[in-house]
């Protein structure tokens, strides 16, 4: 199944994002232009105007504060096994405006039930899974935080700023004086 790309301008500190689209839906999102699942980002561009228009419109509404759920179809090809289970748990159980810790997501997913986890291995593993989330934004890994703060975030050199921006948009964090989001 072929993959093409839609590039969407954003107000995010990381700049535009690229979304891989297939006949099934969005298969990957890249904040930084780095490859996803071994697939080179950006080419070929999506020529399906209806599909590209839907992706662009939904993201525009989300970034303008007019949409809480992107409601785009997802192609899960780059997330399999336990990683997919954790991501699907996140998508289903952590709504707009809410956060969950890495450890809480590990417990809710059921993936680590057999692990005697006195050392926080499950939470660290979920952190690595979030860092490798091929569907960032659609599967909102920005809503997963450390038990003592924001935690980390991919998305290139401005990743943590991007996480803060998204959590501010969703009302989790208060806006700062330099925040450029919707009023």
Q: Can you give a write-up of this model?
A:
Strands 1-2-3 form a three-stranded antiparallel sheet, with helices on one face. The chain has a two-stranded parallel ribbon with strand order 4-5. The longest helix is centred in the N-terminal third of the chain and has 15 residues, at 49-63. It is globular. It starts with a strand and ends in a 14-residue tail after the last helix. With 183 residues, it is an alpha+beta fold. α2 crosses α3 (102-109). The model has no long low-confidence stretch (mean pLDDT 91). The protein folds into two domains: 4-63; 81-169, Arc Repressor Mutant, subunit A (Orthogonal Bundle), CATH 1.10.10.10. 32% of the residues lie in helices and 10% in strands. β2 and β3 (26-30) form a beta hairpin.
Q: How many domain units?
A: 2
Structural class: alpha+beta
Unreliable sequence segments: none
Main sheet specs: 3 strands, antiparallel
Helix content: 25-40%
What is the CATH first-level class name of the largest domain? Mainly Alpha
Quote the average pLDDT.
Answer: 91
| Contiguous helical run count | 5
Strand portion: 5-15%
Q: Provide the spatial order of strands within the biggest beta sheet.
A: 1-2-3
Query: Span from first to last CA?
Result: 41 Å
What's the overall geometry?
Answer: globular
């Amino acid at each position: 199944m072929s993959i093409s790309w839609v590039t969407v301008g954003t107000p995010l500190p990381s700049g535009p994002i690229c979304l891989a689209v297939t006949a099934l839906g969005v298969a990957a999102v890249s904040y930084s232009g780095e490859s996803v699942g071994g697939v080179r980002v950006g080419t070929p561009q999506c020529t399906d105007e209806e599909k590209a228009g839907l992706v662009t419109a939904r993201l525009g509404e989300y970034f303008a504060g007019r949409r809480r759920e992107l409601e785009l179809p997802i192609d899960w090809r780059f997330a399999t096994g336990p990683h997919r289970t954790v991501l699907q748990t996140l998508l289903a159980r952590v709504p707009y405006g809410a956060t969950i810790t890495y450890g809480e997501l590990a417990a809710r997913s059921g993936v680590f039930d057999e692990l005697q986890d006195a050392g926080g291995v499950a939470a660290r593993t979920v952190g690595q899974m979030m860092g490798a989330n091929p569907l960032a934004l659609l599967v909102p890994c920005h809503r997963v935080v450390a038990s003592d703060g924001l935690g980390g975030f991919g998305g290139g050199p401005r990743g943590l700023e991007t996480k803060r921006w998204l959590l501010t948009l969703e009302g989790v964090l208060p806006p700062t004086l330099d925040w450029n989001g919707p009023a």
